[in-house]
Amino acid sequence: MCRSLVPSSTPYDLQATLDKIVDEKYQKYQQLKILEKEEQRIVDEEKKIQDKKKKIEEYKKKIQEEDPRRRDDG
Questions:
Q1: How far apart are alpha carbons 20 and 9 in whole angstroms?
Q2: Can you tell me which residues the record assigns to a coiled coil (predicted)?
Q3: What is the pLDDT of residues 8-45, one digit of tens each?
Q4: What is the separation, in whole angstroms, between the first and last Cα of the chain?
Q5: What residues does each domain of the chain span?
Q6: How far apart are CA 17 and CA 72, in angstroms?
């Protein structure tokens, strides 16, 4: 006499729910991959900036060695 208050699910309902969950997980995975690529791009860009700073410092040193009157007072 006592029936469950939870409606019975059909295999179609279960498959639709599973498909939805898989789709959501895949979208999150895709977003993660995009973020990882962006993070790597930023890391690469920062490395380029550091390399340029290093070259500038080396160039300043070279100029100062060639002409001792020039100084970097800043």
A1: 15
A2: 32-66
A3: 678 888 999 999 999 999 999 999 999 999 999 999 99
A4: 89
A5: 12-67
A6: 67
